[in-house]
Give the backbone structure.
Amino acid sequence: MPWFQAASVVVGAGIGIFQGSQADRASNDAADAQNEYNEKMYEYNLEERDRLYDYTMDQTNIVRNNTENNIAYQEDLLKDDWQFKESLSIRDQNNQIAAFNKSEQTYNKQLDFNSIAADQAFYNNAIQLNERRIGANFALEKVEGTLGRKLAESQYAKYDVKNSLDSKRSSTAFSKTMKGLELSSKEAETASNLQNSRLKGMASEGSLMARGQSGNSIRKGVSSIATQTGIQQSRLVDGLVRAESQYKVGVMRDSQELANFVVSSKNSLAKIGTTDQYSEYDASQGRREVSETLKSADRSYNTSNMKIATDLFGANLKADAQRRAMPLDRIETPKPLALPRPDIQDPYKPGDPPEPIEGAGSGNINTLGALSGAANNLSGLNFGALLGKPTG
């Protein structure tokens, strides 16, 4: 309702009061005028009441509509905020899933790299072990070759000593045989010469006897022949004795030389045997060194493999520690609930006041009716709203 209408209502009420007061103080002659006025005022108040009620109802509907619009607006804001938060939640979930997948890819690649690196380390360790074994085998072959060569040289040296000893024995036996043959030949020659000497002496004696001489000259001749024959035989026997002495000395010398050679050969064989023992000892020591080298290589190989396996396990643990945790299921943002709608009560609809009775209620009664009508009109007004001021 416009302010001027409200003002007119107020003015009308005041005029009614004033007229009621004037009517009370007026004479009964003014009753008819007052009744006519009351009729008009009654109709006016009814119309004004209806207009005020309609106005108040319009206000209520406006408030109700504004409230509904405001609630709908707030609900739209909540829905927009929910959709925004939901999109952020979905994007965050997608980012977490993408980061997790990338982490898994990196983890799997790291595991593959660790496995390749470990395989390469195992391979290099195996190659190193194989090279050390090859070196040890070559060293063992060298030891065995050196031993075989030394034993072969010793065997050849033994054969040489034994062959020399056999040759010495053969040559000594041959020398003794030759010396015996020479002695036998000398004895035969001496015997033959003795025989020839005797025969020559006998022949000379026979030839002297055959001349026919006798007496002292024959005896002297025979004695001279016997003397010469004796001298020759003595020389022959002396030569034979010297030959026998030389034979015995030669045989003793050969036997001594053979004995010395046997002793020297035994010493040589003993020396060769001692050399073989040292060679065997050196070879045994070389074998032990090769065996320990192989054992050391195996220990180093096993230790390296254990370290490689430990490093692989540690690298895998480190890669696993750097993995992102699997994202949990996304928690949906709760949808906004409908805002509560306040109940807005319709304004009170007043009933019709008593109609004015002609001739009744004159004086004070008319005044009370006018006041009551004015109060009814004013009671439906919201002066605070009309004036733009807060009420309370």
Observations:
- Helices lie at 3-25, 31-210, 216-321, 364-379, 383-387.
- The longest helix spans residues 31-210.
- The chain is about 85% helix and 0% strand.
- The chain has a mean pLDDT of 78.
